[in-house]
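Sat 14:20. Reprocessing the chain from the morning session after the first attempt stalled halfway. Input below, unchanged.
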Amino acid sequence: MTLPTDRDHGADTSVRVTVALDVLGGDDGPEVVADAALQVLDQQSGVDLILVGPTDLTHTLAADRGIADRVDYASAGSALAMDEDPVRAIRTRPDVSVQVAAELVRDQRAQASVSVGHTGGVLAAATLTIGRLEGVTRAAVAVVVPAVHHSVVLLDVGGTVDATPELLAQFANSGRAFAIALGLSDDPAVGLLTIGSEPGKGDALRRLAHDEFLDLNLRYVGPVEGDDVALGGIA
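Finished this time. Tokens:
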């Protein structure tokens, strides 16, 4: 897999961003995460990395790839296991790597943390350590879908089991803000994913959420279907 470069995104390379990278996250081990770190440094000139993990491990991984002097380090003693309760682990084990990465953002040493480990752990660390914006009662998990016409921000994709119309409205605002921050659009369209594009389509939750969306100060285009996501056709 090749990462998009600064040129692909038209990035302003004069602006630098520091990312805290959890090397203990993921199914394939720290070696794969370290390989990704090398690729980021080679292709994204505006990104600085802090490798988060056991000190000996992060230094060895960086040295083996010739990037020891191109990254910073933050010590973390252990990973969050997939069968652990994430909230309990974050609260009782301050040396968990995903928690240390979140603390770097909280303390303004990094602008973002990245982990491909326990999704619930990432969400718990972000919520409990970094906190939520005013008016946001629950964080959402978002993904950027590379569609035919243009990329689409899709949320929530697993952070919330029992959503309410009010939560879906919050997610709409969060997704819009995220799309703008990514530079996908200055005024992104917002659609409500359901089983049809006609008004009134979907279950009771979607119908109530539709009414909530109409009151939001955003460019709401109404209900959309799955193929609209794949095509990027809601703009």
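Strands lie at 17-22, 47-53, 71-75, 112-114, 142-145, 152-155, 189-193, 219-224.
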